[in-house]
Amino acid sequence: MVIPLEQGVIGVSHDDADLVNWQEFARARAELAAAFARILGYFREDGDKAIGLIEQAFRSRNAAALVSPAHKLKGEAAQFGAHRLSAMAEEIEMVARRCVESHEGPDELIEIVVSLRPCFAETLTLLDREVNPPAPRKAAGFGRRAPGAAIGFGRAG
Fold it and tell me: I need a labelling partner for 152 at 20 to 30 A (CA). Which of 20, 100, 136, 144 fits?
């Protein structure tokens, strides 16, 4: 589903956005090179902080306080190709701006705000898995002889 955003940009609804666009992720990884892991760490810390601020602002029904952390989260998520998270943050930002202008509370954002942290966690899990893939398991397990291992226990061949 394509939705028009308030600034005239056409965006994808967060429901339809890919969790991670792997082409954009690979591009960011290549461009950031050695700094990639450090910047991803900042994203983890800053994203967690931004989500906390968004949750706090929503609980206090402060639409103005939603704008800045949502804007920051939107940009940082987009940098890593985290499209769904970025789209969610963008929707929070745009609705919050509209609420500030119309002097309304941000109540309509409850579903997005509640699902923001789980989306962030799922996104980080995928990014971490891509950055640090699990080590391959050895073919031999407990009680099995590894290929090419000497026969006998404790004996020299």
Answer: 136
